[in-house]
Amino acid sequence: MYYKYTKNKYAKKLENTVLLEKLILSLKAKSTMGKIVVTHSFRGGTGKSSIISNVAACLGCRGKRVCIIDTDVQSPGVHVFFGLEPKDTKQSLNEYLWGNCTIEEAAKDVSDSLLGVKEAGGKVFLVPSSIGVNDITKILKEGYEVSELNDGFSRAIRSLDLDYLLIDTHPGIGEVSLLSLAISDILLIVMRPDYQDYQGTSVTLEVCKRLEVPNPILVINKLLPTYNFKKVANDIEEIYNCDVVAVLPQSDDLMRMGSKGVIYTIQRDHPFSKGIDKIADRIISA
Questions:
Q1: How far, in Å, CA of 254 to CA of 222, rounded?
Q2: Above pLDDT 70, what percent of the chain?
Q3: Selected residue with higher pLDDT from 114 and 5
Q4: Rg of the chain on CA atoms, in Å
Q5: In this structure, is residue 6 part of a structural domain?
């Protein structure tokens, strides 16, 4: 069956929702050594992959051991930020889920590509999803056991001795996204100043409420520099009754980079990087 577990009316009806409850409790019990940080958005194009890549670099520059798992198997892209080519993703999350490699073998140490991480004693790993057309088609057609994904999360935290496991989700409300939301210790909901995102964020926060997700945090991305950032943050907090941890600007510098690289490690004083620092501060203090 294509994915075996679900949580509420936003996902498909499944055989036994009690199994999901047990999986969530089991995973939380296993993952006490490191915190699970999930980035999610209701719609695509919010920049959550850029944000999670920069947050990972920031935490690494603070001496933390971090791993990103790109669970967006339908449209993977995190690997681009760390200079990985398609040939570098042969041992991927897909291969782990199909039983062809361990999660440790799929994890790439990308610390060398991030200025300041090794000097600070940190480590940044990435478990990419495959960019291969055949692999994407296969996993969409055949699916996979979500319990294997759960086991991979727990094993990565233990075997890589992680301080933080960062999960990049597929946009929207699907089975894997629901599970990721439910097990998160820290949930970053990324939104743009766009009316479609406003509606989608309302849906996401309602789902979080039903899943009893503790203290989700909003990140506003791609705000035009001419706006009053503080006023926008205050307005959003009042609308959603939810903390805004950072407001990140629409940046020509990021556009010129074209996702090839992580701006935090090369421009620490950039307004975007300063927002990333705020997110990292909240994660560490949580």
A1: 10
A2: 89
A3: 114
A4: 18
A5: no
